[in-house]
Write a structure and sequence with these properties.
Strand content: over 45%
Structural class: mainly beta
Largest sheet: 9 strands, mixed
Radius of gyration: 31 Å
CATH architecture of one domain: 7 Propeller
Number of helices: 1
Helix content: under 10%
Distance between the termini: 24 Å
Number of strands: 87
């Protein structure tokens, strides 16, 4: 079993992956250079217009498992039960904090980042799972659910609010431009949200149509709510005069009264079940007010911390409260009549941020900063259920969360261990993923881990200079070793399990006898920290990587150094032996991987492609796996020295710090600042049947003719595009013409007589398919007739199924639809907040779906040009959309690597795939509708079974980013264009054997 790790991972947040590859500028290939030792020889390539040889043979890659193990929980901030108590809505905000790098001031340590949160709706009946899961951009702020559980409203930290049917259509989506709260009336008929300008806006919750606006003296609303009897609306917050709350009669826009004398801003409040009393937070107490008059009645005894959450029980007898003490995680129960404490509920690892009673008053739900949702029996004060999170989530330090420094997969794959900078060791079970046990292992950071080959012992090393042996089943300490004079940063077991090697900041390597803990040898020679260690499979050699810029080979029997391998010129982070011990791989801070011949000590090749530090390398058979601070996991074919896959873990990850494989190489885990990702091997598919190019400029788009006999390819530079038409049977070039501008998209008309070309220079061309002759420039003609109208920067172009209409996605935030016969603009669809990149007609051509950079996808009714509905806001934007051939499904791909299937009629989410392909820019249904092809920023194309959502085959297209993907009309092949400058045609193969 291998484990590769690095030291403290406190670093600058890397910028999100560039969207230039989405049609704005050509991105670099994901792997540009493979420089062998005899560099200088250049590979030959066929000229444009000729089909080159087939693609590379299949090799092993890895794909991420469906589940993940987050080690940094999303912090829950709001809860709401439906009136029948059958559903619980939970909304959470992104909880990661920037921890800072010494000497850097781009962000203050402890600052909350604008990451995605999530909305989850749980079924509360016996054995009922959660019934909905929705990503919330910029973190959730508040949530409300209708009494019947059929509609849910929520808001985020960016001021956006939504109202939608659970599993159904969106009723309302508004952007209020400031943080907002939402609430539903007790009968579920009215929705209210706080807006700018001292105003509360209401909507009809059944239709989403605006209703009365309420005005008052509160400037920044922190809490809003309806009274249970439906007569009052209350908003609390602060004003220039003093902190207060205002009370309105429902239907009357001016306040009935204002509550004055609250000592702090009213961040939270609760209305009694009889609608007579309002409870608000004071500095260290709860204040009770007459709702009708605004007069203060009483207040509770002082608490140890400022009250931030309050909730009346349904019978009005109790008040539940939580405070701002970050780490106590305690809920206090008060007698509402006397103001005396009658009980406490303790269990959360951090502050409690959300409270909600069931309507029968028997259960209290709580959500906290530790990411857990807990249910409590109010009478017994006992916890009855843990809906999410862990019982052993440790309290987190103020402003900084512990960084994960090392991971280790148990040899049998049953568990994964992690070590972090707080000195904690955690063991997670894998079926299902859950925290099994956690213990404080070191007085300072725990920086290294290794499982013994039999899996019975887990060893950790730390900044406290200690090496400790643990029973991973119990967390019991077996033995502690001392001797190093600096941090212990690397550990490795010999394959026979008899020897442990340790590397340290003190520049030494020590070999220990596992049976009794006696030090056998010290290996001296490195001039700086020893970062990584690995034994050869026969245990005769030990490889070490060091900050002294070298890799060294040691004879384990004599302790003598055999070779010093120099070539990185920077810190070397990791080493790994191939399965036959003939090759040694090393990864360094120069962003490269070097392959060394173990017998001759010569440099065999340098593998380039990572865009930041290569933090870990490992072998799985003849496949080399690497991880980097560029947030990618890459696989390489050792024989050809070519990259075969490039998978981004997550856009939210700052850097990947560790890799570990099971002993058989069939499972892999990666560790990052956002947690653990689990990976399984996937055979990566087949050979290209034809390859066209390379071209002098990136091939942006390709398309099959409707009869499947021709292939069109557009390769565009900054000023002009080379356009080719090929005969598929012979790969012969039919013609080659040049057009001005960068053509981003091409499409054949259904009759096959016309081609449409969408260009970046405000051109939308119609071309005769037989000759390549330009017939019309639709944009040029339109703007000359009406110069006042803005020109279009064409994105995707697509003909309607009957060929009478041509639609073009535009970078001017609209979709332009043309009458093909009359060459005139028939319709303009406007409503996207940003650039539109992708469009698709419904098969009956009555509707059109569009996706864009503004995190939105819109379904349009083409009979009147109105918006039917919008899909939920998707962080990363919708950059690929497709309509299934039967018209029942929509597919979307987004910039965060997520692909979704939706019910086309209602917009109901049906299935979510995490593609691990980087930004997903291409989603295409096969002609029979049974397969969905997904591609984008990575080097892979993944075929998914539409019925089950299971991946059926993965293709290594070896093209860098995939710019374009299209199925042939018969569905037996598909074409891709990409960063290698070629257009490749691939066979659609049967599913991979399980």
């Amino acid at each position: 079993m291998r484990s590769i790790f690095i030291s403290r991972a406190r670093g600058l947040l890397l910028a999100a992956a560039s969207l230039l590859l989405l049609g704005l500028e050509p991105p670099p290939s994901a792997a540009q250079a493979v420089a062998p030792a005899d560099a200088g020889k250049t590979a030959t390539a066929s000229a444009p217009g000729a089909a080159s040889g087939p693609g590379a043979a299949a090799t092993i890659s890895f794909e991420r498992e469906e589940f993940q193990v987050p080690t940094r929980p999303i912090e829950d901030c709001a809860l709401a039960f439906s009136a029948n108590d059958q559903f619980l809505a939970v909304i959470g905000g992104g909880g990661a904090r920037y921890t800072g790098e010494p000497g850097q001031n781009l962000r203050e340590p402890g600052q909350i980042l604008g990451e995605s949160g999530r909305l989850r709706i749980w079924g509360m009946g016996k054995d009922k799972p959660d019934v909905a899961y929705i990503s919330v951009p910029r973190g959730g702020a508040s949530v409300a659910i209708s009494p019947d559980g059929r509609r849910v409203a929520w808001s985020n930290g960016g001021g956006e609010i939504w109202l939608r049917e659970v599993g159904g259509a969106e009723l309302l989506h508004e952007n209020l431009r400031s943080p907002a709260q939402v609430a539903l009336s007790a009968d579920g008929k009215l929705l209210v949200a706080a807006t700018q300008g001292r105003r509360l806006q209401t909507w009809d919750a059944l239709t989403g149509k605006p209703a009365v606006a309420y005005r008052g003296g509160v400037v920044h609303f922190s809490w809003i709510g309806f009274s249970p009897d439906g007569k009052y609306l209350v908003g609390g917050g602060e004003s220039p005069e003093e902190p207060l709350a205002a009370v309105w009669r429902v239907g009357k826009p001016q306040p009935q009264n204002k509550l004055k004398g609250n000592p702090v801003p009213v961040e939270f409040a609760s209305i009694s079940p009889d609608s007579k009393t309002l409870a608000t937070s004071g500095r260290n107490s709860i204040l009770l007010w007459d709702l009708a008059t605004g007069e203060k009645r009483s207040q509770t005894d002082n608490t140890d911390a400022t009250v931030t959450r309050i909730q009346f029980s349904p019978d009005g007898a109790l008040l539940a409260s939580a405070g701002d003490n970050k780490n106590d995680g305690v809920v206090t129960l008060w007698d509402a009549a006397t103001g005396k404490v009658v009980g406490t509920l303790a269990g959360h690892g951090r502050d409690v941020r959300a409270l909600a009673f069931t309507h029968d008053g028997k259960t209290l739900a709580t959500g906290g900063g530790d990411g857990s949702v807990r249910l409590w029996d109010v009478a017994s004060r006992k916890q009855t259920a843990l809906l999410q999170g862990s019982e052993k989530t440790p309290p987190e330090a103020e402003g900084a969360l512990p960084a994960l420094l090392a991971v280790a997969y148990a040899p049998d794959g049953s568990s994964v261990a992690t070590a972090d900078e707080d000195g904690q060791v955690n063991v997670y079970g894998m079926s299902p993923p859950r925290l099994l046990r956690s213990w404080n292992a070191h007085a300072d950071a725990a920086a290294a881990l290794a499982y013994s080959p039999d899996g019975k012992t887990l060893v950790s090393g730390g900044y406290d200079k200690a090496i400790k042996f643990w029973n991973p089943q119990t967390g019991e300490l077996i033995r502690s070793l001392s001797g190093h004079k600096g941090w212990v940063l690397s550990l490795a077991f010999s394959h026979d399990g008899q020897t442990l090697a340790s590397g340290s900041y003190d520049r030494s390597i020590r070999l220990w006898n596992v049976a009794d803990g006696v030090e056998r040898k010290q290996l001296a020679g490195h001039k700086a920290t020893v970062r990584s260690l690995e034994f050869s499979h026969d245990d005769r050699l030990l490889a070490s990587a060091s900050a002294d810029q070298t890799v060294r080979l040691w004879d384990t029997a004599s302790g003598q150094q055999q070779a010093t391998l120099s070539g990185h010129g920077v810190v070397v982070r990791s080493v790994a032996f191939s399965s036959d011990d003939r090759l040694l791989a090393s990864g360094g801070e120069d962003q490269t991987i070097k392959l060394w011949n173990v017998g001759t000590h010569d440099l065999r090749a340098t593998l380039s492609g990572h865009k930041d530090v290569v933090s870990a390398v490992a072998f799985a058979q003849q496949t080399l796996v690497s991880a980097g601070w560029d947030r990618t996991i890459r696989t390489w074919d050792v024989d050809s020295q070519q990259m075969r896959s490039n998978n981004m873990v997550s856009p939210n990850v700052t850097r990947i710090v560790a890799l570990s494989l099971t002993a058989d190489g069939r499972r892999m885990v990666s560790g990052s600042d956002q947690g653990l990702s689990l990976w399984k091997p996937a055979a990566v598919g087949s050979q290209a049947t034809a390859s066209f190019g390379p071209y002098t400029a990136p091939p942006r788009s390709a398309a099959f003719s409707p009869d499947g006999k021709s292939l069109a390819v557009a390769a565009g530079g900054a000023e002009e595009t080379d356009f080719y038409l090929y005969d598929r049977a012979t790969a012969a070039e039919k013609y080659h013409v040049t057009f001005p501008g960068t053509v981003r998209s091409i499409a054949f008309a259904p009759a096959g007589d016309l081609l449409a070309l969408g260009s970046a220079d405000r051109q939308l061309l119609l071309v005769d398919a037989a000759s390549g002759r330009e017939l019309a420039s639709l944009e040029k003609d339109r703007t000359e007739v009406d110069p006042e109208r803005p020109g279009m920067l064409a994105g995707e172009v697509v003909f309607s199924p009957d060929g009478k209409l041509l639609a073009a996605a535009s970078l001017d935030q609209s979709i332009h639809i043309y009458d093909v016969e009359h060459r005139t603009l028939a319709q303009t669809l406007s409503g996207h907040p940003s650039r539109v990149f992708s469009i698709a007609f419904s098969p009956d051509q009555k509707q059109l779906v569009s996706g864009g950079a503004g995190n939105t996808a819109i379904i349009w009714d083409l009979t009147d040009g109105t918006r039917r509905y919008s899909l939920p806001t998707q962080q990363g934007g919708y950059f690929g959309v497709a309509w299934s051939p039967d018209g029942k499904l929509l597919a979307t791909g987004c910039g965060t690597g997520v692909c979704n299937l939706w019910h086309a009629e209602t917009g109901t989410p049906l299935r979510t795939f995490t593609s691990e392909l980087g930004a997903v820019t291409q989603v295409r249904f096969s002609p029979d509708g049974k397969l969905l092809a997904v591609a984008g920023a990575g080097r892979l194309v993944r075929m998914l079974d539409v019925a089950t959502g299971e991946p059926v085959r993965t293709y290594s297209c070896n093209t860098g980013a995939v710019f374009c993907l299209r199925f042939s009309p018969d569905g037996k092949s598909f074409v891709t264009t990409g960063g290698d400058g070629k257009a490749n045609v691939w066979p659609v193969l049967p599913p991979e054997p399980k």
